[in-house]
Known about the structure:
Blueprint: H1 10-34, H2 53-72, H3 86-101, H4 105-108, E1 115-120, E2 123-128, H5 129-154, H6 161-165
Antiparallel strand pairs: 1-2
Helix pairs in contact: 1-3, 1-5, 2-3, 2-5
Amino acid sequence: MTHSMYLSSIPVFMRMFDNLSAILGKALAHAQAQQFDPAQLLEVRLAADMYPLPRQIQIATDSAKGCAARLAGLEVPSYADTETTLAELQARIAKTQAFLRGITPEQLDGSAEREIRLKVGGQELQFSGADYLNGFVLPNFYFHLTTAYNLLRHQGVPLGKMDYLGGV
């Protein structure tokens, strides 16, 4: 049985972005119900040396769109990383999902063996497509999604595991 790079990536990204979007909606509703400026949620960190919420979401979207583009042999779309509101973060997620919807299973056929090269932290990394997706992108993607969830949960947003997992 062959490994479907499409099924292991695009639907996974789409579902988790749906869940993240719903989580951001709950964060906004929580701020409104508690009568505080939702902008406060954008600067929270669990530790002083970690990225705040916007950067977590930017990295998650960059991971997904970069993966899809590289596996499909396309140019990676570039986003400005200028989001400063929950609405702008929602728009970034929607823009990423629109890009992902444009990727077809046929574009990812054979990408498990495609050579992927990228620079990270000043060093060049080289992977097969399957190793890139499974050993680099998906762990990074889930790390930043989980961190975004944890940042909001830590601020009292009423979230549970099913918010993260979505409709199973």
